[in-house]
Amino acid sequence: MGKVFTQASVSLDGYISGPGQTGFDRLFAWCTAGTVATPTADPDRLTYLTSEATARYLRELQERIGACVVGRNLFDLTAGWNGRHPSGVPVFVVTHRPPPAGWEATTSFTFVSDGVENAIARAREVAGHRDVGVGPGGTVADALRAGLLDELRMDIVPVVLGAGTPMLTGLGDTAPIDFAPAEIIEGIGVTHLIYRRATQNLR
Question: What is the value of pTM for the model shown?
Answer without folding.
Answer: 0.91
